[in-house]
Amino acid sequence: MARSLAELDPGERGRVTSVAGDADATRRLMDMGLIRGTTVEVVRRAPLGDPMEVKLRGFMLTLRRSEAEHITVE
Amino acid sequence: MDATEIGGTIAAPPAPSPAPAAREGALHVALIGNPNTGKSTLFNALTGMRQRVGNYSGVTVERVEGRYRDAEGHPVTVLDLPGTYSLSASSPDEEIALGVLLGRTPGADAPDVVVVVLDAQNLERNLFLATQVLELGLPTVVALNQVDAAAAAGLRIDLVELTLELGAPVVATVATRGEGLEMLKQAVAKAPGLPRPGRRFELPCEAAQALAPVEDALEAGGLTPSAAGMEALRLLAVRQPGRHLAGIAGLDEAVERAHDEIEAAGLSARSLEAEVRYGWIAEVADRVVTRAGGGERTLTDRIDAVALHRVAGPLLFVLMMGIVFQSIFTWAEPLIGIVEGLIGGLGGWVASILPPGDLNSLVVDGAIAGVGSVLVFLPQIVILFLFIGFLEDSGYMARAAFIMDRFMRSVGLHGRSFIPLLSGYACAVPGVMSTRTIESPKDRLATILVLPLMSCSARLPIYALLIGTFIPPIAVAGVFNLQGLTLLAMYLLGTLTALGVAAIFKRTLMRGKARPMIMELPPYRIPNPRSLFLTVGHRASMFLKRAGTLILALSIVLWALATYPKTDAPAGASEQAAQEAQLAGSTLGQLGHAIEPAVRPLGYDWKIGVGIVSSFAAREVFVSTMGTIYGVGAADEGSTSLRERLRGERHARSGALVYTPLVAVGLMVFYVYAMMCMSTAAVVVRETGGGWVGLGWAGFQFAYMLALAYLSALLVYQGGRALGLG
Fold it and tell me: What is the arithmetic mean of pLDDT over B363-374?
């Protein structure tokens, strides 16, 4: 089932099926290896609820809900 | 893992082109890598203290260059390019890095050898940048850094295999301990003689065809075929050629056509580059990396479970910031005392050897006192930079931005703006300089423009004098003291105004879409002291050079204004009375009289006018000027004689008291807002682009803050009177 990355709870993981949204943000995400087929795990959200921390390719990345909403995972 | 150099390479596809002619004998090396790879530590280990720091022309990207001599004694210069995750050229840092490597950044020739620094713990993501660099076709050496940490994490990397896959020599290094450096230097020396690296994967057929005209346009514009291939693929996703490719004929059209063709063929133009590169990287990683174990919680995971915890995280953050600021004030205090003592001693000694007169006064009261007023900031600046450097190098800074991003976004700024703003409480100078970590130019500018509204430590003497003199120490609600609450109110006023003004700027002048919060949280590390001290040293000397020269000139101007024209003291007058008369008759005194009509609505007389005029260069001068004007000699904020004089001062005509608590509060509010600090102005000029652009922004900042100060002081005084206060 396809969901957006923003909907995942901490500890859940998914395989990226599409990356869309703002050109600058997608470019950056892709440069850092978040592309179709990458497995991403949500680690936690920041104390104020946003942004979120995810794990991919062995490193930790932060992104905001507004950016995560444009990434679909399965 | 065996930390040895693997010298063997396989022939790379593009035919080797002739080695660039040796320029002035020195080999030019450029160092590039992701942030947090230990690149700067490697740079410092290679070059030691032989470094030069400057800026690339027109942008505030730091240009750090160093040199060393290789085993045979040949000179080698090393350019430390900004840390970057890719060569997409979507930030100023990336654009500079790409421009330099292509030899298309003014003032920087293309390097003879590129050293790509990879973090062995994070090979996949690091290889993305490496594949881009290798395709440029320059002689390239790969430094696989932090191999010790990777080994500890159970990662084994086959260096021979990696060398074969990349088509460029790979050297294992541990920069923090200096391991592998000699091997690296040897590999660099040999690199120009090796076959050039190039692209290691095939593009889908339709993509290769569609990109061919773009490559042709780039080659016609002077790029090598290899670099043109890399640029064409990059432009497909970015679609903005950037400054370094300006003026290449037909490029935009060719890119747009290729984009449309590739989309028509059912491929994603946006993600093609990332997908083909990471596709190739995944295969290489499979062959090169073996994982023993892994998956268990690392130390970083365990620290973050606390440091980023919903409750404990913010508490720890507040505690850390508290400790930082407490230490700045307590540690800097004795050092400031020492600096002041040295300046005073030097002034006294010079005063005693020069014959009394104008020259004596110029050197002692003008030059030495003026430069001294800059030097007293140095302890705080150095300590603050040490903390900022420590937070940055340890990996906590990224966490601070992560925690604060939601809050900062409510005023339109980025999480990265928080620490610079906070630094403003100590001193705006290091705060402004540390805004370089903010990626978005608009966010950075907005942060710089509001930063001096944070009450810095130089305002403390003014607050202390006025609160101590005019605010009664009444207990409020049992535990608080009205004096303390007033001080707190001044800090809050500055802070809230800074956030409010930032929000206004971000919605008007510096409007722009929110920058993504896409940021790596690097593993925690113990900072390398040597790198830390080198960075702090660079920053401190940059401040001294820039601000010092300006302050020296300004101090001499101020000195002249206070010294000329001469007023002869009436016979028999005390030295203090003579000083007071001199100041009253000087140009500065006349300026005070001249601005009296402007400051009268604020409840001030000409003497406060003189104080304000004299404190344009450095606000804390207000206190010592008041001391001179009221003839109490050398004054500081605690001196009782000055306090007595201020309390008893009456208007010459009406006989009413000059200083009511209302006037004092209005004056404090004035100093909360007024940007009276030439050191900050000098740094703002430089950090907002330098030259006329920088002067324009600094002038704008000075003007809006002065307007804010004047109007607020007016509101306090007139509003207060209307309410029957004061």
Answer: 78
